[in-house]
Design goal:
disordered C terminus; 6 strands; alpha+beta; two-stranded antiparallel sheet; 186 residues; globular
């Protein structure tokens, strides 16, 4: 895998990828999301195809094929990914360096090369799946943190997410005429 600064653009050229993970047949792109300053949007592209949003069914089917080919190693791979998933925390930055370190550190921690024999089964290689799942995990953790903040209406929690979310919530509250803005500002 090669990691490079983003060059791909989406949304009529208005959004440029932060980082790109280049594999033999695929590229994973990470873009700035709209939910908060640390939100990310994940896209991928197979050679010669259009850019797509990854769906869980894509990697689930691939894992099932790997399971059929080598059940023991696939279960070990899934356990390693689950252990990583359980320890992830929301991003505190989503720039190139942060995302690069996140992926490289994670691959070293699980020793990704030990799972390369699974590449003979399914469409995706295990490194592609790992990068995809790791990015999905931190994306989900970011969304989970925002949900918790909305539930507890904590001023400190809002500071962790960032001013952009607070401003967005205030605008929504004012537009809807609700009391949410008072709760977040008290």
């Amino acid at each position: 895998m090669k990691i490079r600064e983003g060059t791909q653009r989406i949304d009529n050229g208005t959004k440029k990828a932060i980082i790109e993970f280049v594999f033999d047949d695929y590229i994973i792109y990470v873009f700035q999301g709209a939910l908060s300053q640390f939100d990310i949007v994940i896209k991928y592209k197979k050679d010669g195809m259009r850019i797509r949003t990854p769906k869980h069914i894509h990697w689930v089917v691939d894992i099932l094929m790997k399971m059929q080919g080598n059940e023991v190693l696939t279960k070990q791979y899934l356990e390693a990914i689950q252990n990583c998933w359980n320890t992830y925390v929301p991003l505190t930055n989503n720039n190139f360096d942060t995302l690069k370190v996140l992926i490289e550190k994670g691959e070293n921690e699980i020793n990704i090369a030990q799972y390369f024999p699974l590449n003979t089964f399914g469409e995706y290689n295990v490194e592609f799946l790992y990068v995809l799942m790791e990015l999905l995990a931190v994306q989900e953790k970011q969304i989970d943190q925002m949900r918790i903040c909305l539930v507890i209406s904590s001023k400190n929690c809002l500071k962790q997410i960032g001013t952009s979310l607070r401003l967005s919530l205030r605008q929504v509250s004012e537009e809807e005429g609700g009391n949410m803005a008072r709760n977040f500002n008290s």
